[in-house]
Amino acid sequence: MMPHSLQTDSRTVLESWAMQHFKNEVWDTVLHNDPGTLPESVIEAIEDRVLADAVELISRLNDDCLRDKKYMNIMIGDANSDTRNQLRKAAARQAWEKQRRTRV
Q1: 2 vs 14: CA distance, rounded Å
Q2: What gap in Å lies between CA 97 and CA 43, rounded to an integer?
C-alpha cells in the first residue's frame, strides 16, 4: 500500500507507514547482505542505528514528503545503502581483528 492510497491523512498513520517500510528494507538488506559471520548483537546494533536515523528523518519530513512515493523510495534506498555499508565495515573489522589475533 502506498501512502497516497491510505484512508486517512493523519500524521501518525503516515509516520507508521514510513517506519514499517524502513524496517522492512533494513531487514531485507541484512538478510541478503549479511556475510553470515557477524554476531547477532552486531547486526542488531546496525539495525538500531539505521532505524534511529530513520525515526529522526521521518520526524523532520512534512506530510507531503511522506506521501511522495519517489521521495520515500530515495530515503529508503539511502537506508538500504547505509545498512549495507555498515555490514561491510563490521565484517571487515571482524576479519581484521581475527587476523590480528592469529598473528600474535
Answers
A1: 10
A2: 17
**Residues of the chain below pLDDT 50:** none
Distance CA 9, CA 3 (A): 9
What's residue 8's pLDDT?
60
Predicted pLDDT at 101 = 84
Tally the residues of the chain: 104
pLDDT score at 67: 86
Amino acid at 80: N
The model's pTM is 0.78
- Report, in angstroms and rounded to the nearest whole number, the Rg of the chain calculated over CA atoms: 17
Q: How many Å apart are CA 54 and CA 94, to the nearest integer?
A: 26
DSSP conformation letters of 64-100: HHHH-HHHHHHHHHHHHHHHHHHHHHHHHHHHHHHHH
**Any idea which residue has 514499517 for its cell?**
20
Task: Report the alpha-carbon distance of residue 2 to residue 25 in Å, rounded.
Answer: 15
Other beta carbons less than 10 A from residue 37's beta carbon = 11
